[in-house]
């Protein structure tokens, strides 16, 4: 464990920011620690394949978010909140964030005074600019800048965009998001496109995906391809299967599976994500996929009641894992294969215990390092019926 009071030579603010607790650990060592932890967790089930790490583990985050404020000398600063406080840790460069995104945020910082735009002050409620979010399409190079404002009225917004674009012509879209609530949520509901299409696209495993300001999209695209590649290898689709992509987000995994399946059903709770998923399917001309907005547990209970058949279940739940209703219905529907993608090994193990009690067996598993320099561990497991 790293000592949180020690200042790293690699990043002077890492101890206060907390975004890369393992910054001083060599990458090989990080992989060893993760691998050992995963092997131990999976001991009751199966022996994992070798962990899949990154060749170049720096600057992998394609979504960068900065909160804006002022320091004691009234200089504009941007960065992240110090853990459990509302003090801003100023960040100018970051070892895990996309470098272009950090440069763009730096330019916004520099432009603000000449446009007389003040950062929002949480205590007083005065000021305009709350956050800036930058998302970069890894394969396409498209870049989206989202300016989160406390009010819909931005003085000389067109000139501001012009100035930003003259420094960074690579920006493809600029969106204003209005968050006028006293809340820790970053994005509000209202949006206005100032430049470009209002979204970017990225390519994953040969499919093109639309990323809106609020869309969920994996933050490490290089590793996501490896993760989805493993999921597809485990699914072993032949073109004859009915596949369910549960907790499908914007439909990425299901769409990648659709080429090699008879048909795919995607289920997702978040309305915006489902909308993106439908657009993504159209964009990629995938006709054998349908999306439903529903709680995955409720949806599966209905499927089980209707006696629906399912060959392969792909599931990628949030950190809290799946739930009883879902797992119970899985044992009634009895798919041939389950591919479980997990971003939280503790809930993965909890859910595997239930599935293995209910007639499934873990055949293969592997950890994929989606977040170098952090403790988080992502994994894929293949289960088949006993
Ligand atoms: N498979 C997608 C998204 C995985 S993240 C991808 O790889 O991009 C987990 C997703 O589960 C999120 O999109 C979240 O909105 C969704 N989710 C959370 N709880 C849910 C529930 N009870 N039912 C359905 N979807 C849920």
Textual characterization of the structure:
Helix content is 30%, strand content 25%. The chain has 10 helices and 16 strands. It is α/β, with parallel strands linked by helices. The chain is globular. The chain folds into 2 domains: 27-56 and 220-385, Rossmann fold; 63-200, OB fold (Dihydrolipoamide Acetyltransferase, E2P) (Beta Barrel). The chain binds S-adenosyl-L-homocysteine. S-adenosyl-L-homocysteine (SAH) binds next to helix 6 and strand 11.
Summary of the model, kept short:
It is built from ten helices and 16 strands.
Q: For this structure, what is the CATH class of the largest domain?
A: Alpha Beta
Percent strand equals 25-35%
The CATH architecture designation of the largest domain is: 3-Layer(aba) Sandwich
Which structural class do you get from the secondary structure elements?
A: alpha/beta
Q: What's the multimeric state? A: single chain
How would a textbook summarize the main sheet? Answer: 7 strands, mixed
> What number of structural domains do the residues give?
2
Span from first to last CA?
A: 40 Å
Bound compounds, each kind once, are:
S-adenosyl-L-homocysteine
Order the strands across the largest sheet as they lie in space. 3-2-1-4-5-6-7
CATH homologous superfamily designation of the largest domain: Vaccinia Virus protein VP39
**What's the mean pLDDT score?**
95
How many helices? The count is 10
Overall 3D form:
globular
Secondary structure topology:
Elements: H1 14-17, H2 27-42, E1 63-70, E2 76-81, E3 88-90, H3 99-114, E4 129-136, E5 143-149, H4 157-167, E6 173-178, E7 190-195, E8 200-204, E9 207-211, H5 221-235, E10 242-246, H6 252-258, E11 263-268, H7 271-283, E12 289-293, H8 296-305, E13 312-315, H9 324-333, E14 337-342, H10 345-357, E15 360-368, E16 378-385
Parallel strand pairs: 5-6, 10-11, 10-13, 11-12, 13-14
Antiparallel strand pairs: 1-2, 1-4, 2-3, 4-5, 6-7, 8-9, 14-16, 15-16
Bound molecules: S-adenosyl-L-homocysteine (SAH).
S-adenosyl-L-homocysteine binds next to helix 6 and strand 11.
């Amino acid at each position: 464990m790293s000592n949180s009071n020690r200042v790293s030579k690699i990043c002077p603010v890492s101890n206060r920011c907390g975004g890369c607790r393992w910054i001083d650990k060599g990458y090989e060592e990080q992989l060893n620690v993760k691998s050992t932890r995963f092997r131990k967790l999976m001991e009751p089930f199966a022996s994992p394949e070798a962990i899949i790490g990154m060749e170049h583990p720096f600057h992998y985050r394609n979504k960068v978010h900065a909160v804006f404020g002022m320091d004691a000398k009234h200089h504009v600063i941007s960065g992240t909140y110090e853990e459990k406080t509302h003090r801003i840790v100023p960040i100018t460069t970051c070892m895990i964030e996309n470098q272009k995104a950090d440069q763009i945020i730096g330019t916004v910082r520099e432009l603000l005074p000449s446009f007389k735009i003040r950062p929002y002050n949480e205590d007083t409620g005065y000021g305009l600019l709350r956050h800036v979010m930058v998302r970069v399409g890894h394969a396409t190079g498209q870049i989206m800048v989202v300016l989160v404002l406390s009010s819909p009225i931005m003085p000389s917004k067109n000139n501001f965009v012009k100035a930003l674009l003259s420094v960074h012509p690579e920006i493809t879209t600029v969106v204003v998001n209005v968050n006028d609530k006293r809340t820790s949520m970053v994005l509000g509901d209202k949006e206005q496109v100032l430049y470009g299409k209002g979204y970017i696209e990225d390519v994953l495993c040969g499919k093109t995906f639309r990323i809106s300001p609020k869309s969920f999209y994996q933050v490490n695209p290089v590793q996501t391809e490896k993760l989805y590649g493993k999921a597809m290898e485990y699914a072993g689709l032949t073109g004859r299967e009915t596949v369910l992509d549960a907790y499908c987000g914007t439909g990425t995994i299901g769409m990648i599976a659709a080429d090699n399946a008879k048909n795919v059903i995607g289920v997702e709770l978040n309305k915006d994500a489902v909308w993106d998923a439908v657009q993504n399917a159209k964009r990629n001309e995938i006709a054998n996929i349908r999306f439903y907005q529903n709680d995955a547990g409720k949806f599966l209970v209905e499927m089980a009641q209707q006696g629906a058949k399912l060959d392969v279940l792909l599931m990628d739940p949030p950190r809290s894992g799946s739930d009883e209703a879902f797992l119970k219905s899985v044992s009634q529907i009895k798919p041939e294969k389950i591919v479980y993608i997990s971003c939280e090994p503790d809930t993965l193990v909890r859910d595997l215990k239930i599935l293995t009690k209910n007639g499934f067996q873990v055949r293969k598993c592997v950890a994929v390092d989606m977040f170098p320099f952090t403790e988080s561990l992502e994994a894929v497991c293949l289960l088949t019926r006993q």
